[in-house]
Amino acid sequence: MSEVVILDVEPKQRYTFTKDERLKSRKTIELLFAQGKSFSIFPFRVVWKYEEATGPVLQAGFTAGSKHFKKAVDRNRIRRLMREAYRLQKKELGDQLKKQQKHLSVFFIYSGNELPEYQLVFDKMGSALMRLIKIVHENSLADT
Question: Which residues does 115 contact at the CB level (< 8 Å), separation at least 6?
């Protein structure tokens, strides 16, 4: 008779970007641009606002300007690439915010002139998220 061995396997990590994590409210977006802080990591300009937790801990929005990209197809492609790169890398930032019970609204603006490759978007999104993690960490130290 063969012996059955059961391995304790961690559940697979689900990388999601749900509807409530999307920054859609006009009022929230206007407040973010009016009162938020920003930094640039080429080809992104990142506008963020850090506050007490209300609802989801992390909300994000994405845009590409029509100044450089006249065709909606190109703007949609850039936004799709940005969302995908964000979705795969946001976990660490979300965990940090949950721990501190804070809310972060973020808006990523693509400011490059050319249609980007996915690898560039992925790398730069990772850099932007690492900078946001550092900002959240510094704000948590300032609060204590």
Answer: 69, 74, 77, 78
